[in-house]
Structure formats: structure tokens, C-alpha cells
Design goal:
Shape: globular
Radius of gyration: 22 Å
Oligomer: single chain
Largest sheet: none
Strand content: under 5%
Distance between the termini: 46 Å
Structural class: mainly alpha
Helix content: 55-70%
């Protein structure tokens, strides 16, 4: 191992380096949270327009004119970040995680429009997630894997809170990455990971259809199935009961609190992804220990 790697591998240095990297990752997560739903909407509109244009005159009615396409490339990297109020391009000095927001006092440097406090909060969460992973697992593949897992959970949870959608672009790569990591037994053995992925999907899929048959309503979305499948792929099937119970408990507590303190309507849907994600984080870091303690009460 080189001297540089030895220095980085020092526990204290590794945690600090990961915290700094996590802050930058958190800045990118803000981009993902803002742009990915818009990219999905653009893709859906283009697909619908193609279908309608191909259909010609469905049911005897003329198809609507095709939507004009913008020439601007729009993805996670292009165009450069800018103020949504005035279009001011964000400079490098204005994009330093947390610090820039504090120096600018939460306002755009050009038009003084407010910048949501959520941006530095997400950046801080990205840094804390990386630092905690480094402290928990040390200089190992598990630490880097845990960082990616937590960053994906943060992005998916905030998007779900905003749009009640869990993008396949996050949940499916997360599932496959969990299986790939566990081919080397990073968090669990491959057999447990494969069974966890299948069982995680099928459990919520079954609950979804049972609820729909009984009530005629949809109780959750397919993104929730995929997220639990991803958690099963990372942590193994053994922690799925803990994940389901914990996420249901947190979701019920938050839902009751919202109805009591904010007059949140009973028929207004509440996204389940953030609670699944929180339970998945607990499962990744403490799942085996908690499961053993729980089972010891009955054995």
C-alpha cells in the first residue's frame, strides 16, 4: 500500500475525507432530486406524443398536434445549474456545499430569490452518510457500498416526498448493485441476497393486490416493491421482517401525527418510500444484531 493510501486508510483521516466527498455527493444529489422527475416527465410526454401520432385518429377523433421539442439538452449534467427564478448560472464559488448557501444567506446572488434550506440539508446528509459509513465499516468495500446505498436512499426518499414516485433509475440499479456486491459476500451471502430481492418484491406486491381486492384502491406504488427488493438484495432476506415492521410503524406514527397536527386528510396519500428507506438504513447497519436480539426472545 502506498504512503498516500496508508494515510487515507487511517480511521480519522478516512472519515474526514469521506465527509468531504459526501458533501460533494450531496450537492449532486440535489441535482438528481430536482432534475430526474423532470426528465421522467419529458420522457413520458415524448412517448405519449409518439403513440398518439402513430395512432392517427383514435376513436374517430384527430390526434393532437405533436408537442414541439426543445433543442436544449437536459440531463443530470447539462445544462449548468441556474437559479429557477431569474436563470442566473450558478458559478463554482456559489456551488460549494453548505458554505456557499451560508455566505449567500440562502438567496440568489443575482435576484435575491430565496434558496430552499433543503439544499444544504441534503448536502449535509450526504456528508454525514459517507462519514458514518466510513466510521462503521472502516477502509473496506462495505464502507463504499454503504455510502452509495445511503445516497440512493436519500435521493429516492426526497423525490418520493415531492412527487410520490420512486424512479426506476434509482431503485433498479440499486437492486443490481446489491446483488453484485454480495457475490463477494460484502453484506450477506449471494443466496440470501437473491432470496431477499425476490421476497422483498413479492411481499409488497402481494399486500398491494390484497388491499386492492378488498378496498378497490391502490395502497402503494410499484416503486415501493422495487425499493424493498433492493433492500433485500443488499441486506438479505433475514432482515425483511424487521424492515417491513419498522417502516410500517414509522409510517403509521408519521401519518397519525400529520392528521392530528396538520389536518392531513385521511384520503390524501402519504409516500411510503422514505419510511422503507429509513428502515433499510437500519437494516444495513444494525439488521443482523437487531434480528438476533428479537429472535432470542423466543428461543
Amino acid at each position: 500500500m502506498s504512503d498516500t493510501l496508508k494515510a487515507v486508510a487511517d480511521p480519522a483521516v478516512f472519515v474526514l475525507v469521506c465527509f468531504a466527498v459526501g458533501l460533494m455527493a450531496g450537492s449532486f444529489l440535489n441535482v438528481v432530486i430536482h432534475r430526474l422527475p423532470k426528465m421522467m416527465e419529458r420522457s413520458w410526454r415524448e412517448e405519449c406524443a409518439e403513440v398518439l401520432n402513430a395512432a392517427g385518429e383514435p376513436y374517430g377523433s384527430p390526434a393532437p398536434p405533436p408537442q414541439p421539442k426543445t433543442n436544449e439538452t437536459y440531463n443530470l449534467f447539462v445544462p449548468r445549474s441556474r437559479c429557477p427564478a431569474c436563470g442566473h448560472g450558478i458559478t463554482a464559488l456559489e456551488n460549494i456545499p453548505i458554505l456557499s448557501w451560508a455566505v449567500l444567506r440562502g438567496r440568489c446572488s443575482a435576484c435575491k430569490a430565496r434558496i430552499s434550506v433543503r439544499y444544504p440539508v441534503v448536502e449535509l446528509l450526504g456528508g454525514v452518510a459517507a462519514a458514518w459509513s466510513a466510521a462503521r465499516f472502516g477502509f473496506t468495500p462495505a464502507a463504499f457500498g454503504a455510502m452509495v446505498f445511503l445516497w440512493c436512499i436519500i435521493a429516492a426518499s426526497v423525490i418520493d416526498l415531492d412527487t410520490q414516485l420512486l424512479p426506476d433509475a434509482i431503485t433498479l440499479p440499486l437492486l443490481w448493485l446489491g446483488l453484485l456486491l454480495n457475490t463477494g459476500g460484502v453484506f450477506t451471502n449471494l443466496r440470501s441476497a437473491v432470496i431477499g430481492a425476490a421476497a422483498g418484491y413479492l411481499v409488497l406486491w402481494s399486500v398491494y393486490w390484497l388491499f386492492k381486492l378488498v378496498t378497490g384502491k391502490e395502497g402503494m406504488g410499484y416503486g415501493d416493491f422495487k425499493l424493498l427488493a433492493a433492500i433485500g438484495a443488499w441486506c438479505g432476506w433475514q432482515v425483511l421482517p424487521l424492515t417491513i415492521i419498522l417502516s410500517s410503524f414509522i409510517g403509521a406514527a408519521v401519518g397519525i401525527a400529520l392528521m392530528i397536527f396538520t389536518r392531513h386528510g385521511r384520503n390524501v396519500p402519504i409516500p411510503f418510500g422514505p419510511y422503507l428507506g429509513a428502515a433499510g438504513v437500519v437494516a444495513l447497519f444494525w439488521g443482523p444484531q437487531l434480528t438476533r436480539q428479537y429472535l432470542s426472545q423466543f428461543i
